[in-house]
From TrEMBL:
Stated name of the protein: histidine kinase
CDD domains xrefs: HisKA (cd00082)
Enzyme Commission code: 2.7.13.3
Provenance organism: Natrarchaeobaculum sulfurireducens
InterPro entries: HATPase_C_sf (IPR036890), HATPase_dom (IPR003594), His_kinase_dom (IPR005467), HisK_dim/P_dom (IPR003661), HisK_dim/P_sf (IPR036097), Sensor_HK_Regulatory (IPR050736), Sig_transdc_His_kin-like_C (IPR004358)
Catalytic activity: ATP + protein L-histidine = ADP + protein N-phospho-L-histidine
Keyword vocabulary terms for this entry: Kinase, Phosphoprotein, Transferase, Two-component regulatory system
Domain Histidine kinase: 134-325
GO molecular function: phosphorelay sensor kinase activity
Record-linked PANTHER family: HISTIDINE KINASE 1, TWO-COMPONENT HISTIDINE KINASE
Length: 334
């Protein structure tokens, strides 16, 4: 629905007639309800406050506003700029008068497609949050039961088996942390809370949850420190290690090393065909046919959230090598 915010009767009727060849049009100016608002330069000042309020009330949605401008009217460039508070521009496009139907239809079509994409993304995010809420709720209960039973079991466990019990407890704590992270990401998007981390410590923590007793890990330099979100970095390593075990076998050797501007994770498995290296990072793609296809997508999202870059190449042993570059280091002069 195109809503005309044009006060001059003759101009409003002419625009309505032009638009009705393709769109549903309303000339009601009491409530701003259209999918797209078309306002002329002589009426804009009257509706500016209401348009501003509309944009402020729904900052994450997209309600396009198109301004019809006469040649003699000076355009305030700030109308097309993101506002100082980070809000969307008041005007999304400008069409010159006299209006040409072909040009106008093309501009409106592009904006309406963009609005539809925003609506679809909004609906997808709502479904994602609902799904995450359900999943995390259903996971929390069995997690709490398992932790409670573990506490009851602890006094009867021999000292020799106490180490195994601690491993189970750490795994349950890690699961609980993942549940919290998934729910937070579904609600707020993928954000980072960065701190200085010893790379070897993060790698060891990630390796501790990988069930592959025949696999080998070559750890990075113990002095290497990076600035990253601890949960996201840990999750990225876990998924890269798990991916190597799944595709290279239980006896895989995984090498984690330091690059000048980042880190690499390499294995001695069969590698990834160059034609598939972009596809494997897409959600739902699984080279084995039996996986969820989420592991490397999770890695890619964590890398993107930090502003890093992820590249897939071939390792010296002919396997897969993942390079994460653009990683921040602590300031040595601090």
């Amino acid at each position: 629905m195109i809503q005309l915010l044009v006060d001059d009767d003759a101009n409003r009727d002419a625009l309505a007639e032009l638009l009705e060849a393709r769109y549903d049009v309303t000339t009601d100016r009491n409530e701003l309800t259209g999918d797209l608002l078309l306002v002329d330069d002589r009426s804009f000042s009257r509706y500016r406050d209401r348009i501003t309020e509309l944009k402020d009330d729904a900052p994450s949605s997209f309600r396009p506003v198109v301004l019809v401008r006469r040649p003699e009217t000076r355009l305030d460039p700030s109308l097309l700029e993101e506002r100082s508070d980070g809000g969307n521009p008041l005007v999304d496009d400008v069409v010159g008068a006299p209006v040409q139907q072909v040009v106008l239809f093309r501009r409106l079509s592009n904006l309406l497609v963009r609005r539809k994409q925003f609506e679809q993304l909004e609906a997808q995010n709502e479904r994602l949050e609902e799904f995450a809420s359900v999943v995390t709720h259903d996971l929390r209960n069995p997690l709490q039961v398992a932790k409670g039973r573990l506490d009851l079991l602890e006094p009867s466990v021999s000292a020799a088996d106490r180490e195994q019990l601690e491993i189970v407890a750490e795994s349950l704590d890690r699961m609980e942390s993942i549940v919290d992270t998934v729910l937070a990401q579904a609600r707020n998007g993928l954000t980072t809370d960065r701190s200085e981390l010893h790379l070897r410590s993060v790698v060891r923590d990630a390796w501790s949850v990988i069930e592959a007793p025949d696999a080998s890990l070559i750890e990075p330099d113990g002095e290497s420190v990076v600035v990253a979100d601890p949960d996201h970095l840990l999750t990225a390593f876990e998924n890269l290690f798990r991916n190597a075990v799944e595709h290279a076998g239980d006896d895989v050797t995984i090498d984690v090393g330091v690059l000048e501007s980042g880190v690499y994770i390499a294995d001695d498995g069969p590698g990834i065909d160059p034609s598939d290296r972009e596809n494997v990072l897409e959600r739902g793609y699984s080279g084995t046919g039996g996986g969820t296809g989420l592991g490397l997508d999770i890695v890619a999202n964590a890398v993107e959230a930090h502003g890093w870059e992820l590249t897939i190449t071939e390792s010296d042993a002919g396997g897969a090598r993942f390079e994460i570059t653009g990683v921040e280091r602590p300031d040595p002069d601090r």
